[in-house]
Amino acid sequence: MFEQTAKMALALGLLALLFVAAAQNHWFARGGGALETIMAPRDRAMSAAPDPVSQSAATLASASRSRALPGVVELAPDGNAQYQTEMEIDGASIHALVDTGATYVVLSADDAHTLDIDPPSSDFTVKAHTANGTAMLAPVRLREVRVGEIEVHDVQALVAKPGQTTMSLLGMSFLKKLSSFQVADGRFVMKQ
């Protein structure tokens, strides 16, 4: 009886966590034994303090799930059914849209500048056809890209010219180095 009650409480805690995350439009990644908020919308401040009941349920639920699935990052979709995350490159956090249709990791000019990557104009030799027209990009190599506890080395990337894109992309040059990635139960799941 106690075991059934505990399982029911854990399931309700997970549902509360998912509801709160969806309502606040947060993204979560598994790391260090607990779910960690890795992105909040940049254009909107949090309007309320975290609910301690939901936090307790989240800590209990994520601790058991993390032990079962090390090296896994799960992302919830945003309001447009897209997946966004923070990727860490050389110690700097870069906000990115997960794009399985992008052959490479793509850095906006601003994000590249944050990383001290400023290619000369002569390096913008790669032509890409986008929804907004043709873009010229500069090829670069990233020593290490980290998303949550997943770490990938020697990642090919492209840097966009200033004004061509405001959003960096987490593309296939990162994703193809994982053991797997998929959409499962509405979440984008990446495994080291």
Report on this model:
With 192 residues, this protein is of the alpha+beta class. It is built from 4 helices and 12 strands; from the N terminus they run αββαββββαββββαββ. Strands 4, 5, 6, 7, 8, 9 and 10 form a 7-stranded mixed β-sheet that branches. Strands 3-12-11 form a 3-stranded antiparallel β-sheet, with no helix packed on it. A two-stranded antiparallel sheet has the order 1-2. Helix 1 packs across helix 2 (52-68). It is globular and about 45 Å long.
Strand portion, in percent? 35-45%
Q: Helix content range of the residues, please? A: 25-40%
The tally of beta strands, per DSSP, is 12
- Summed over residues and divided by their number, the pLDDT gives a mean of 73
Q: What is the string of SSEs from the N terminus onward?
A: HEEHEEEEHEEEEHEE
Q: What Rg is obtained from the alpha carbons, in whole angstroms?
A: 18 Å
Structural class estimated from helices and strands: alpha+beta
Poorly predicted residue ranges: 1-68
Main sheet overview: 7 strands, mixed
Shape: globular
Counted by DSSP, the helix tally is: 4
Report how far the terminal alpha carbons are from each other.
38 Å
